[in-house]
């Protein structure tokens, strides 16, 4: 049955219109499409038109008689937020390591001693499908409550074919049953299994010859990701893994230059990655190669914040012409959060981004980073009616007030799934 919904008279409606063909770069990142007193007409889960309330109500007078109306007066409406880099599916938590880091140990030392990613891998391998599903669903609910309507989710805590597939299947089951859309990424190359740490090339061969072909054959992932970092996967191994993914139709992404400068940005450009993520230590040459190759920088300020590191230089990347997206990097070790709005605060306060740029970075540019910009990321005719309404009158409030959740209403595919800040 066709349902008509009208979101009415938002004090500001941010459309993000006209960036769907390619990601916004440079000054285009500030072009967020503000409509004061904006309304959105939705039919059958899709956007029909966005515009001034007066104009829309006049134009669609007859259709509006039967419409469900959502009053957004005094509130801010934006495209549903998109988180383009999460490790959603895992078991357990690592607060013990947090205490160890506060006492002076480093993230990589903990991992090299068998903790870190290895600790979560043990917990995830041990967990049954039901436990993994329930723990991950609770996190997905939190994302939705923070205004997120599309999320990327990586595997990478299985590290064997069986357990990587288990993680990816849980992500698919969540996608089938939850309002939030999930784009899956295979990340078998998240770490070399601890027991095999002296035989990295043997594991790389398994990722390339066994895991990637089978994950692709089962249609379980869109992207293929690798943790390119000293002590994890070398640039050469990363290239090999990402090229193998491409041969099987998996689009490349890369965890690049997080802890040390390690040619990650350069590998991203060489392989034609959709995005390179982290980039705290990316070289100037790597950044310009990314700009030339059109690789999106997915910046993860929560990770720098939580690991107490220097933040990525977003200004430098922006000025070089790299498209920027922002993400939580939600995971149990380096960024245990579900708040994309907090990443917007950090983007402004710690990475030199403007309030307009951070909005672009969590909507249309994030949509490009997950290959979904033709369907989501902006409020334009024909796109999915994914809209977040915040209990603030101006978009500046989102990156000004921090540590708060201003989400009032979330509309997904035209259905209200959060109302008054509560899940329906
Ligand atoms: N750096 C590699 N992977 C994750 C962290 C995973 C973990 O610590 O469990 C990240 O993106 O930060
Ligand atoms: Zn990550």
From TrEMBL:
A single GO CC term for this protein reads:
cytoplasm
According to UniProt, the name of this protein is Imidazolonepropionase
Tell me which residues bind 4-imidazolone-5-propanoate.
94, 157, 190, 258, 334
Organism field: Alteribacillus persepolensis
Q: Which residues form the Amidohydrolase-related domain?
A: 77-416
Q: What does this protein's UniProt record list under function? A: Catalyzes the hydrolytic cleavage of the carbon-nitrogen bond in imidazolone-5-propanoate to yield N-formimidoyl-L-glutamate. It is the third step in the universal histidine degradation pathway.
For this UniProt record, give its keywords in alphabetical order, as a comma-separated list: Cytoplasm, Histidine metabolism, Hydrolase, Iron, Metal-binding, Zinc
Record Gene3D superfamilies: Metal-dependent hydrolases, Urease, subunit C, domain 1
Q: What is its EC number?
A: 3.5.2.7
Protein family membership: Belongs to the metallo-dependent hydrolases superfamily. HutI family.
The top EC class, named as a word, is hydrolase
Binding, N-formimidoyl-L-glutamate? 157, 331, 333
Gene Ontology biological process: L-histidine catabolic process to glutamate and formamide; L-histidine catabolic process to glutamate and formate
Q: How is the cofactor bound?
A: Binds 1 zinc or iron ion per subunit.
Reaction it catalyzes:
4-imidazolone-5-propanoate + H2O = N-formimidoyl-L-glutamate
- Could you tell me where this protein is found in the cell? Cytoplasm
Which residues of this UniProt protein bind Fe(3+)? 85, 87, 255, 329
């Amino acid at each position: 049955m066709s349902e008509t919904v009208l979101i009415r008279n938002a004090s500001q409606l941010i459309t993000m219109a006209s960036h769907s063909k390619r990601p916004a770069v440079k000054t285009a990142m500030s072009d967020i499409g503000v409509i004061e007193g904006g309304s959105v007409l939705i039919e059958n889960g899709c956007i029909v038109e966005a515009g001034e309330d007066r104009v829309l109500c006049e134009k669609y007078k007859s259709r509006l008689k039967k419409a469900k109306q959502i009053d957004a007066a005094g509130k801010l409406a934006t495209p549903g937020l998109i988180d383009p880099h999460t490790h959603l599916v895992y078991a357990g938590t690592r607060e013990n390591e947090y205490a160890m880091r506060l006492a002076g140990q480093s993230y990589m030392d903990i991992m090299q001693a068998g903790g870190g990613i290895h600790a979560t891998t043990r917990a995830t391998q041990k967990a049954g499908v039901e436990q993994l599903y329930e723990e991950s669903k609770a996190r997905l609910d939190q994302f939705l409550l923070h205004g997120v309507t599309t999320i990327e989710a990586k595997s990478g805590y299985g590290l064997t074919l069986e357990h990587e597939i288990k993680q990816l299947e849980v992500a698919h089951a969540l996608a089938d049953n939850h309002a939030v859309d999930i784009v899956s990424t295979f990340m078998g190359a998240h770490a070399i299994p601890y027991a095999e740490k002296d035989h990295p090339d043997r594991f790389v061969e398994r990722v390339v010859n066994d895991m990637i072909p089978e994950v692709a054959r089962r249609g379980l992932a869109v992207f293929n990701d690798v943790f390119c970092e000293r002590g994890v996967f070398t640039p050469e191994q990363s290239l090999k893994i990402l090229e193998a993914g491409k041969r099987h139709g998996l689009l490349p992404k890369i965890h690049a230059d997080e802890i040390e400068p390690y040619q990650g940005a350069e590998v991203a450009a060489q392989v034609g990655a959709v995005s390179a993520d982290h980039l705290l230590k990316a070289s100037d040459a790597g950044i310009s190669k990314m700009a030339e190759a059109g690789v999106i920088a997915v910046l993860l300020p929560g990770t720098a914040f939580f690991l107490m590191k220097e933040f990525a230089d977003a200004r430098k990347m922006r000025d070089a012409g790299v498209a920027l997206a922002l993400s939580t990097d939600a995971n149990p070790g380096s960024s245990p959060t579900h708040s994309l709005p907090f990443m917007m605060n950090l983007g402004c306060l710690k990475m030199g981004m403007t309030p307009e740029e951070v909005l672009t970075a969590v909507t249309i540019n994030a949509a490009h980073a997950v290959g979904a910009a033709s369907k989501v990321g902006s409020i334009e005719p024909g796109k999915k009616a994914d809209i977040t309404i915040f209990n603030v009158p101006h978009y500046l409030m989102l990156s000004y007030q921090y540590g708060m959740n201003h989400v009032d209403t979330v509309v997904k595919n035209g259905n209200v799934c959060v109302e008054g800040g509560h899940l329906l």
